[in-house]
């Protein structure tokens, strides 16, 4: 894929604008060990050649069925996992080549909010120390300023500052996720990976937490990679959406356009399964046959071909490139005569 094409990522975006984050050919293959000597007998190709750019201040959704590789992309680009291959450039710096000190420095600007607020907060630490720890790592707001900063952050996410002496188990799921958000924001990052930040929460409080995140994003001008299952939530809060399937990107488009004019058969099927808020839009429900294939042995050619209703013999031969089909709208499918 040409540089220029990926740079044209966001509609109305100047082609000259430097992306904040740039991912090229990112791969994460988890080795499978077997036999008596624990030799490597294969690999789970969780992420297999992913390319995209994020521009400053945009919120980009990353969607796809369970197991498509979304979490792995989020963790590998932050180097919480060591990628098998590829390039990650953040603010013009090569993240993959960074040593420990440089990485710690970069992490001030790149934070993550985890899916499970029950597992991601240390149960033995008070809220003050959970958030304070993030400050300590980067030597920010030390001494008397620490408590003050924790109080400010808690207030900002809707938790009473006097509750900082409490432990995670004393809070509800929604409150814990607010604490997780405060921890991520403590160091004033520019970029946040939010990995299904509301899917472990009660439906009744999901909207509140999404609204809080949206307010914070706008107020602080954050760039966010928002990983989610729910296409409706993603369309509501994201500028653009990236659709993944079996470790690869199938489509990238501005949110409204992905919804109104999907170009990839996988996106078409995902959308057909999502509830439609506008009753005047009628959609045919497409049932995807069978399960997502194993990333240990993905189909040849187009990885979606075993479930694609438009597949032709050529789809087994060619790996479709992600190409721009309309301004800022990319798809990885060899057929242009179908949607
Ligand atoms: N540490 C690991 N070792 C081996 N395989 C892994 C590991 N982590 C993830 N995988 C596999 O990689 C693939 C992608 O997983 P990942 O968690 O990134 O998917 P996901 O899109 O985030 O799914 P979900 O929507 O369920 O969170 C899956 O097949 C998963 O089983
Ligand atoms: S390349 Fe072929 S199998 Fe893949 S999405 Fe397009 S039509 Fe379907
Ligand atoms: Mg996940």
TrEMBL record:
It comes from the Bacteria. Pfam families: ABC_tran (PF00005), oligo_HPY (PF08352). The keyword Acetylation does not apply. InterPro entries: AAA+_ATPase, ABC_transp_ATP-bind, ABC_transporter-like_ATP-bd, ABC_transporter-like_CS, Oligopep_ABC_C, P-loop_NTPase. Keywords: ATP-binding, Nucleotide-binding, Transport. Residues 21-271 form the ABC transporter domain. Gene3D superfamilies: P-loop containing nucleotide triphosphate hydrolases. Coiled coil: none annotated. GO terms for molecular function: ATP binding; ATP hydrolysis activity. This is ATP-binding cassette domain-containing protein.
């Amino acid at each position: 894929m040409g540089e220029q094409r990926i740079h044209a990522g966001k509609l109305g975006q100047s082609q000259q604008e430097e992306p904040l984050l740039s991912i090229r050919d990112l791969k994460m293959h988890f080795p499978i060990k077997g036999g008596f000597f624990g030799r490597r007998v294969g690999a789970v190709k969780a992420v297999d050649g992913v390319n995209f750019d994020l521009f400053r201040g945009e919120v980009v959704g990353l969607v796809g069925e369970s197991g498509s590789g979304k979490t792995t992309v989020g963790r590998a680009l932050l180097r919480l996992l060591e990628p098998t291959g590829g390039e990650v450039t953040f603010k013009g710096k090569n993240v993959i080549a960074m040593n420990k000190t440089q990485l710690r420095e970069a992490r001030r600007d790149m934070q993550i909010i985890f899916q499970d607020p029950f597992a991601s907060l240390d149960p033995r630490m008070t809220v003050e120390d959970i958030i304070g720890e993030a400050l300590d790592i980067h030597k920010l707001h030390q001494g008397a300023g620490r408590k003050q900063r924790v109080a400010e952050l808690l207030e900002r996410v809707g938790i009473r500052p006097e509750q900082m002496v409490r432990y995670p188990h004393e809070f509800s799921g929604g409150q814990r996720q607010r604490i997780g958000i405060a921890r991520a924001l403590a160091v004033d990052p520019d970029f946040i990976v939010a990995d299904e930040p509301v899917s472990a929460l009660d439906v009744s409080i999901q909207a509140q937490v999404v609204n809080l995140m949206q307010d914070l994003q706008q107020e602080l001008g954050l760039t966010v990679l928002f990983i989610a299952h729910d296409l409706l939530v993603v369309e509501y809060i994201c500028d653009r959406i990236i659709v993944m399937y079996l470790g690869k990107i199938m489509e990238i488009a501005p949110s409204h356009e992905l919804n109104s004019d999907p170009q990839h058969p996988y996106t078409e099927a995902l959308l057909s399964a999502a509830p439609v808020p506008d009753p005047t839009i009628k959609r045919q429900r497409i049932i995807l046959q069978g399960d997502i294939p194993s990333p240990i042995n993905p189909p040849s050619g187009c990885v979606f071909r075993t479930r694609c209703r438009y597949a032709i013999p050529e789809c087994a031969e060619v790996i479709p490139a992600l190409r721009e089909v309309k301004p800022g709208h990319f798809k990885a499918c060899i057929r242009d005569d179908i949607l």
